[in-house]
Specification:
The complex is a heterodimer of chains A (about 550) and B (about 180). Chain A has about 550 residues and is mostly helical. Chain A is built from 20 helices and 4 strands. Helices cover about 65% and strands about 0% of the residues of chain A. In chain A, strands 1-2 form a two-stranded antiparallel ribbon. A two-stranded antiparallel ribbon of chain A has the order 3-4. Chain B is mostly helical and about 180 residues long. Chain B contains 7 helices and 3 strands. Chain B is elongated, with a radius of gyration of 22 Å. The chains are: A mainly alpha (about 550), B mainly alpha (about 180). At the A-B interface, helix 1, helix 2, helix 3, helix 5 and helix 6 of A face helix 1, helix 3, helix 4 and strand 1 of B.
């Protein structure tokens, strides 16, 4: 640990705090229809899509539009990738991937996961990167934000059951948020040396939305460790900031849209607390060597799998940022993290990606925990649980509980199945507890839509790129793809249903008996709820993989 | 049906706008604003210099500095195999540098010199690593040590006005400057 390292971490957190109300305020204006600097483009878009922008949707209508939209984009993505050979901009003459890895990849990008079983350099043409993958980076991010906004509207609604209009929210998210921000960030990255050329590849444009949309899918196999994706300390700082900018800002958007900014800061505070703990643990753990380094008689910090220009501090901070958000971009090898350092990214994903989380998904996931926190503390003090003046009743609580346990259940079942069956073993690269960690990480990361990996875990037989006859490999692709879709769309449907249930409720004025949700005390309750409900489920699994390696100098 | 039609039109429009217009416009802008950088500066990509002991050496890489594809080493922190790799890399470093830096011990070898990077094409090494290698480079090239060390000092950089980040030396640039 160095002073320079701590300064960088403090600077990062300070800039994030400063940016949150500014960007969050702008986003609130976007979704209240107070921003119209691209009015003509917006109107042309609605006309092209044949959308009546004044038509409001209830939760079922909103969900139907969202699901049909996502299904069509899944098919387009799959079709483009499978017909890669006939498309232009394929300088290395790469043929299409097999059906199983393409199933996994299409599911991965549509669900904002960006789990990658393939290596970019040897699998994807420039056309596929642009027209299939980068497009998904934009739209899957926009879908997440739309759901968060719909939930906020449901919570804030004074009357009626409307959550807004899906296509209006989608269009406004792209036009006023994601496209302009990507242009700015992309050019800043290009100024640092991220490439953007017809011969070498459209990397800066993709890198920008990969971060801003918490997607994380690298153009190159080594992701943001590649000097052409992330050449300098400054480009690295900008990339880390781009990851958490929108998830953090959405807490402020939420506060403004429900008419009480302190509500937003309470959620932000809970997220920041969990994040700060994560950063410190990774940084301290990585600053000491690993068991393998000690065995080899090497002194100093754990630089194995890390770039010299980032060192321990920027690599540790990046690892914490990318797993707090459901981004999954990496600037160091996650597989090489020390035992305790590696337990942190897994733990953050296991919270359900609510430590800032993915764009939109982090906030809506956290708001489910807020409802749960209100309900639990309401039971403890014997008050009717009330949130923002609305009673929380049986239907919402049933949905919320299902929403918070569904994904952990998917993770535990898929991991257990992959470990117990001979199919799952084909994907494992490292021996001993690390092999278990690889499997656990794979299903946590895919189900929680993060996308980072202990990259030894295999789902595509490189470099010749054929999975023919390798059933274990197809197993990893299919089970992974299905868990990504379950991890994305089950919570989305539950969140929209909760939003619909809350939207129609009468608002009663706060009384002395109301539990306030905009205080530091409630922030502590929220942190406790996340840790107890989400994280505790996984403690036995964490002990078997990363923790046991962190506690011993034993080589395996 | 109406919903499906809207979704299909959206897929076409957004693929053209976000998948073609956006990256191509960005390519145009970056080529005009940062023509050299946008094509990829060769000094950003580390290379294997081990054929010439008169050059500074980059970090060990499991992928031998191959680009198609780049890859991680993917060894967990407690792997026996990683311990063996590290032992080999430490021995190789000591064998290479000790003749020119007598008394060099494992305790003085910087971690970056004997661990593999993330990208496998890391162009940078630590300043401490470069200062040890300077002895070898000076002797092999018949240059005064002070001059080589001054060159290392010139190329050592630390970002954000020296407040943050790592003090590093770009090996590709340093070798070009020799």
């Amino acid at each position: 640990m160095t002073a320079a390292g701590w300064i960088e971490i403090a600077l990062y957190i300070a800039v994030l705090i400063a940016l949150t109300p500014v960007l969050g305020g702008y986003l609130a204006r976007v979704y209240r229809d107070e921003v119209a600097w691209l009015g003509p483009v917006e109107r042309v878009t609605y006309r092209l899509l044949r959308v009546d922008s004044r038509r409001e949707q209830d939760w079922k209508g909103y969900a139907r539009s969202l699901l049909i939209f996502s299904a069509v984009f899944w098919l387009v993505c799959y079709a483009i990738l499978r017909t890669q050979g006939i498309h232009p901009w394929n300088p290395h003459d790469l043929s299409a991937g097999t059906w199983d890895v393409t199933f996994n990849t299409a599911s991965s990008f549509v669900t904002n996961t960006n789990w990658q079983y393939y290596a970019g350099e040897t699998t994807m043409s420039f056309f596929s990167q642009m027209a299939a993958l980068a497009v998904q980076n934009f739209v899957s991010a926009a879908v997440g934000i739309c759901v968060a906004i719909a939930l906020i509207r449901g919570l804030a609604a004074r009357s009626g059951a409307s959550l807004g209009n899906f296509y209006v929210d989608l269009t406004r998210t792209l036009l006023y948020v994601l496209i302009p921000m990507s242009i700015v960030v992309g050019l800043v990255l290009a100024s640092q040396g991220v490439i953007q050329s017809p011969h070498a590849g459209p990397v800066a444009s993709q890198e920008a939305i990969k971060m801003l949309g918490t997607n994380g899918g690298g153009f190159f196999n080594v992701n943001s460790a590649h000097p052409f994706e992330n050449p300098t300390w400054f480009s690295n700082f900008v990339e880390m900031l781009s990851i958490l900018a929108i998830p953090a800002a959405l807490t402020a958007t939420y506060g403004r849209m429900v008419g009480n900014r302190r509500q937003g800061w309470t959620v932000f505070g809970a997220m920041l607390t969990l994040f700060a703990i994560a950063v410190v643990v990774v940084y301290v753990a990585e600053s000491h060597g690993s068991a393998a380094m000690h065995a080899a008689g090497i002194h100093g910090p754990h630089l194995e799998g890390k770039e010299q220009r980032f060192g321990i501090a920027s690599s540790s901070l990046f690892a914490a940022v990318t797993t707090a958000a459901s981004c999954g971009a990496v600037n160091a090898a996650m597989e090489s993290l020390t035992g305790l350092g590696g337990a942190v990214p897994m733990s953050q994903m296991m919270t359900g990606e609510v430590v800032f989380g993915g764009v939109g998904s982090g906030l809506y996931g956290m708001l489910l925990f807020v409802l749960l926190g209100v309900f639990i503390s309401g039971l403890m003090v014997g008050r009717t649980p009330e949130f923002l003046g609305k009673k929380i009743e049986s239907r919402e609580i049933k949905l919320t509980v299902f929403g918070t346990v569904a994904v952990p259940l998917v993770i535990l079942v898929t991991t257990a199945f992959a470990i117990a069956s001979s199919y799952g073993r084909k994907s494992i690269f490292d021996s001993g507890p690390q092999g278990f960690s690889e499997t656990l990480y794979a299903y946590v990361s895919q189900s929680q839509n993060n996308g980072s990996a202990l990259a030894g875990y295999t789902g595509y037989l490189q470099p010749n790129g054929t999975n023919h006859g390798a059933f274990g490999i197809s197993f990893a692709d299919i089970v992974g793809g299905l868990s990504m879709m379950a991890g994305r769309f089950v919570p989305i449907l539950i969140v929209l249903a909760v939003a619909g249930a809350m939207a129609g409720k009468r608002v009663s004025p706060p009384s002395l008996g109301t539990l306030r949700t905009d205080t530091a005390t409630f922030g502590v309750v929220l942190v406790g709820t996340v840790v107890l409900i989400a994280l505790l489920t996984f403690v036995p699994a964490l002990l078997l993989g990363p923790v046991v390696q962190g506690l011993t100098n034993q080589p395996f | 049906m109406r919903e499906l039609k809207t979704a299909v039109i959206a897929a076409i429009v957004l693929t053209v706008v976000l998948g073609l217009a956006y990256p191509l416009a960005m390519t145009g802008a970056a080529q005009v604003a940062f023509p050299h950088k946008a094509d990829g500066e060769s000094t950003l990509i580390g290379r294997d210099f081990s054929h010439d002991l008169g050059d500074f050496q980059t970090r060990p890489a499991a992928s031998k500095y191959g680009l198609n594809p780049t890859s991680f080493n993917n060894q967990g922190p407690n792997q026996e195999q990683l311990a063996d790799q590290l032992k080999g890399q430490l021995a190789a470093y000591l064998e290479r540098e000790r003749p020119y830096t007598p008394g060099l011990t494992a305790a003085r070898v910087p971690a970056d010199a004997v661990t593999t990077s993330a990208s496998g094409i890391d162009p940078d090494i630590s300043e401490a690593n470069a200062r040890i290698q300077a002895n070898r480079v000076a002797e092999r090239r018949g240059l005064p040590l002070a001059r080589v060390l001054a060159l290392v000092e010139d190329h050592a950089s630390r970002p954000l006005f020296g407040l943050a980040g790592q003090k590093t030396v770009n090996v590709v640039e340093l070798n070009e400057a020799l």
